[in-house]
Amino acid sequence: MSPATQPSPRRALLSVYDKEGIVDLARGLVDLGWDLVSSGGTASLLAGEGIPVIEVAEITRMTEMLGGRVKTLHPMVHGGILADRSDPSHVHDLRERGITPIDLVVGNLYSFSSDPGIELIDIGGPTMVRAAAKNHAHVGVVVDPADYDSLLAELRADGALSDATRHQLARAAFAHTAAYDAAIVQWFDGPDSGGPDADGSDASDPDPLKPSMHLALERVQDLRYGENPHQVGARYRTVGSSGWWDTAVVHGGKAMSYLNLFDAEAAWRLVHALGDPGVTAGA
Questions:
Q1: Which residue has the higher pLDDT, 113 or 187?
Q2: Collapsing DSSP states into helix, strand and coil, what is residue 28?
């Protein structure tokens, strides 16, 4: 069953760490006739704003457990997300078990990169997001608050998200969870994870080089061209990081090219190599 032919009311599951814009999105969905399902802090926020919301516990018939570690991890939730609406056996399973399909998942993950630790390793969030992204043929998934306005605009105009939009959003969702996992791996490689090299060394491993590296990069600047004028180029940075380039300002001339970046980086490193204050006069 395609999103355009799904029965009304449609159902959205909202569970976000970053709550920017979530109230306006929820109001917009309710105005369009959607039912909202939520849990924890997101549900409390929406209810406090007078927005009708169904608690996940009402669907699963189970309260949160293990200090909030288990909330949305339940067949009544994930069955509604993962069901292939075009497969009669899936539709039969939903009806037999009384599971309502979930047509939209809005979720983003604990800010692990800025405040790492075992308790901030999100389990339910990535599972929910990945399930929706896997089933993007039938389910929309949104992980970036910057996409809320365009999501609502498309739903208002067309009544459903296009195949292309769901595909694009699914790609963004998997990129979001991949960056999250990369941050966790980097934390385990560091001195604060409590592992065998928590003191910065590991006597049992004489090789200081890690067996693998996991990087998640985001594009932050389009360049005039790549290494050669006929090539395209861009500057990327590690997701969630920042550096001196983010405060650099081009005061004159053309936009930066790939080689311009290398020259500027070399100049920056040269300045840092000076032990004492120094100055040079331009021609």
A1: 187
A2: helix
pTM, two decimals, is: 0.72
Say which residue, 27 or 197, is predicted with more confidence: 27
Within a 10 A sphere around the Cβ of 29, how many other Cβ atoms? Answer: 24
Question: Which amino acid type is present at position 165?
Answer: T
pLDDT at position 4, please? 39
- Topology, domain 3-186: Rossmann fold (3.40.50)
CA–CA distances in Å: residue 77 to residues 19, 47, 72: 21, 20, 6
What is the rounded CA–CA span in Å between residue 99 and residue 77? 8
| Listed residue (143, 130, 133) closest to 14, CA to CA | 143
Rounded-to-integer distance, Cα 16 and Cα 41, Å: 8
Distances in whole angstroms, Cα of residue 190 to Cα of each of 92, 117, 193, 241: 48, 11, 6, 16
Instruction: Output the DSSP codes for 115-183.
Output: S--GGG--SHHHHHHHHHHHTTTT-EEE--GGGHHHHHHHHHHHSS--HHHHHHHHHHHHHHHHHHHHH
Domain ranges of the chain: 3-186, 217-272
> Average pLDDT for residues 147-155, to the nearest whole number?
94
